[in-house]
Amino acid sequence: MAFPTGLRALNHRDFRLFWTGQLVSLVGTWMQSIGQSWLVLELTNSPLKLGLISTLQFGPMLFFSFPAGAIADRVPKRRLILATQTALMLQAFSLSVLAWTGQVQYWHVAVLAGLYGLATTLDMPTRQSFIVEMVGKPDLMNAIALNSAMFNGARVVGPAVAGLLVARYGVAIAFLLNGVSFVAVILALLAIRNEGLPQDRGGTSVLQDITAGVRYAVGTPLVSLILSLLLFVSLFVINHNVLVPLLARDVLHEGAHGFGLLMAALGTGAVAGALALAMLGSGRPRLVVVVTAAIILSAVTLSLTIVRHFRVAAIALALIGFSQIVFLASCNSILQVTVPDTLRGRMMSIYAFVFVGVTPIGSFLVGSIAEFVGVPAAFAAGGGLGLLCVLGLTLWWTRSPARRSVDFTWF
To answer: Which domains does the chain have, with CATH numbers?
Structure first.
């Protein structure tokens, strides 16, 4: 049975297996994210230390994403993803045991967050570049949109369920269920036939591979613009793991359940954005979509500076989720359609670097502002700086001679 146009990437057997397994696993991942944030606040009562956990969790992406991309272009992708998913499963079970026995301390969470970051650094560019090998370029944008819908559907279910379970049973249950959820994706990977074999590299070294990827990214005007937009939005605006729990607890005076509902609102908006993208035709997204989504994302984040009511905050976060996923999925699609096949793993590692790798810096920045100035000031700084950078880059592009050499229209 053929799937309808909006789900056409699911006609590919391997992607269908991969997508289903990831859906189950990501529900657990979001449950762990909620449990981890709440555990750190319970242990330390410190926004700064919460920000430091995000710094440790995403720090490896800052330092090792380029070698990870080169590795992704050199080894069978299915086997590498299988290894990283197994490592993430063991990390979740370790955190569960520590929390359940009452032995967990802040340094335990910090070390395990760092290990999580190392596994994710290898996993992310490999997984992103594996998608096109399962579905082909004609269905790539639809596959990315469906992946985004799956990721953010899990963001709706995971935090809502985690909020209820954490409030009733404590944080250990969230970590345990996350570990169990990895069984689904591991079984799916074992059933996938496509190995994601590497392209012929011509005998180049890892350093030469990294240099070639960076040279292409810097020397291609459209790719440079997309990566620059992604860099500043990720640095200043996308810091939800730090700011949303603080918004829930310190501004709206909610508990774990309220925090989970706010994260679910963020995910609901993101699912709507992903489904909207999935219904679009194949091909490259238009640049105006990327810029408009970035502006809305930054402006609504800035507006949370003055929000003091739960329902208003939930609506704002839903709008943030919608615009964020349109922005990220469009950036991802543009890069993957533009880049040569031989450079895809490295380009996805650069994508991961500017999307996730700068998270430690952004998390530390907004965590520090929230600690010493207040949560509203952190929203003002993040949203305001993000908006200024997006508008500045857009103005530069409209006046740059480089844009005239790119066959890529705004509308």
So the answer is: 5-193+205-405 (1.20.1250.20)
